[in-house]
Write a structure and sequence with these properties.
single chain; alpha+beta; Arc Repressor Mutant, subunit A; 2 domains; three-stranded antiparallel beta sheet
């Protein structure tokens, strides 16, 4: 489990991947929408998305000719919310203490 967590945090250590996660936190988006919002080239965003998909942080579905990306791991939302919005708080975005948050526990056991 330690290796899996280390790998997950390594993936999350990139600023561009964090930006993608924050954008997908708001709503699912296409690669073009992400590239526009981040002022990056589509190929660069696609590269970051492939890394996030490899660790099952994001998922992809097709809508016509476009691929739409969304967050897959609810636990990522809890962790990022805790780190970015709440500082030292012990309560997740669901209003539950982290040690009791079922979504966080599900994500750690995936």
């Amino acid at each position: 489990m330690e290796q899996q967590l280390a790998s997950l945090f390594s993936t999350l250590s990139d600023g561009n991947r964090i930006r993608i996660i924050r954008l997908l936190w708001e709503r699912p988006r296409t690669v073009t929408e992400l590239a526009d919002a981040m002022d990056m080239q589509i190929s660069a965003v696609s590269h970051q998305l492939s890394r996030l998909r490899a660790y099952e942080i994001v998922t992809c579905s097709r809508e016509g000719r476009q691929r739409v990306y969304s967050l897959k791991m609810a636990s990522i939302l809890c962790v990022l919310y805790h780190m970015s919005e709440r500082g030292g708080s012990e309560v997740c975005v669901h209003g539950i203490r982290y040690d009791a948050c079922a979504r966080l526990k599900e994500g750690l056991h995936d």
